[in-house]
UniProtKB/TrEMBL annotation:
Species assigned in the record: Microvirga alba
Molecular functions per Gene Ontology: glutathione transferase activity
Name this polypeptide is given: Glutathione S-transferase family protein
Every GST N-terminal domain range: 1-79
Residues spanning the signal sequence: none
Subunit structure: Homodimer.
Listed InterPro entries: Glutathione-S-Trfase_C-like (IPR010987), Glutathione-S-Trfase_C_sf (IPR036282), Glutathione_S-Trfase (IPR040079), Glutathione_S-Trfase_N (IPR004045), GST_C (IPR004046), Thioredoxin-like_sf (IPR036249)
Domain spans labelled GST C-terminal: 88-225
Coiled-coil annotated spans: none
GO biological process, one term: glutathione metabolic process
PANTHER family: GLUTATHIONE S TRANSFERASE D10, ISOFORM A-RELATED
Length: 230
């Protein structure tokens, strides 16, 4: 049985969960608190990054980007022309470019700040950085999310999905990271209707249901978080 080591509000873990659900794969889930750095987990992936997928043969596949490539090589061919990393070379480059945008740039500028400051630090011991959030980091992330939202709106105004005519890994990565920010109520959806409509399409998919059911103990989501019609 395949296993996914993940954390409910780790944006990269949410990407993995979305992709696996879209492919109809149902691994066993192991909750891995990223700040704990458990020795058994580090023995599987010394870098300690989430998510970590263990396939049916026991192969450890670390990280969101590597998992996407692994699934494309082992599973996506069954999707034919609907695969999440298209067969056309130029389209594959565009999907990979946008994957990097959301898994790296958006994470560094928005989702990592907000997940760490508003969620992780609530549960981390003080000796490893737990405690009150850094409001400066939160303000920076809230400012940064605005231009990312405009960029999503810019892309969707020209395309059916972020990378082209069909949904790809780019859409799933963007939606996964935005979902954490949206839980916290920090996405200014009223500033870009085009981006909001795109996100509504994504979060209405069956693969999104498990994410919308997640809750941070002691912290309710934004009122619209699990409302499919916003």
């Amino acid at each position: 049985m395949a296993i996914l080591h993940s954390y409910p509000f780790c944006p990269h873990s949410r990407f993995a969960r979305l992709v696996l659900a879209e492919l109809g794969l149902e691994p066993d889930f192991v909750e891995e608190k990223p700040w704990e750095r458990r020795l058994p987990f580090l023995e599987l992936d010394p870098a300690g990054n989430l998510p970590l997928f263990i396939d049916d043969e026991g192969l450890a596949v670390p990280g969101a980007r590597i998992l996407a490539e692994y699934l494309d090589e082992t599973r996506d061919e069954s999707l034919g022309d609907r695969r999440f990393l298209p067969q056309d070379l130029a389209q594959r480059v565009e999907v990979r470019r946008l994957l990097d945008w959301f898994l790296v740039k958006f994470h560094q500028e928005v989702s990592d700040y907000l997940a760490t400051e508003k969620i992780y630090k609530r549960f981390m011991p003080s000796d490893i950085g737990g405690g009150p959030p850094d409001m400066g980091a939160i303000r920076a992330a809230r400012a940064n999310v605005r231009y990312h939202l405009k960029y999503i709106g810019f892309l969707i105004a020209k395309r059916n999905w972020l990378a082209g005519d069909q949904m790809t890994y780019a859409d799933l990565a963007a939606a996964a990271h935005l979902s954490v920010v949206d839980y916290l109520g920090d996405v200014p959806w009223d500033e870009d209707e085009t981006a909001r409509h795109w996100y509504a399409r994504i979060k209405s998919r069956p693969s999104f249901r498990a994410l919308l059911a997640d809750r941070v103990p002691g912290m309710a989501p934004a009122d619209h978080y699990d409302n499919l019609d916003f």
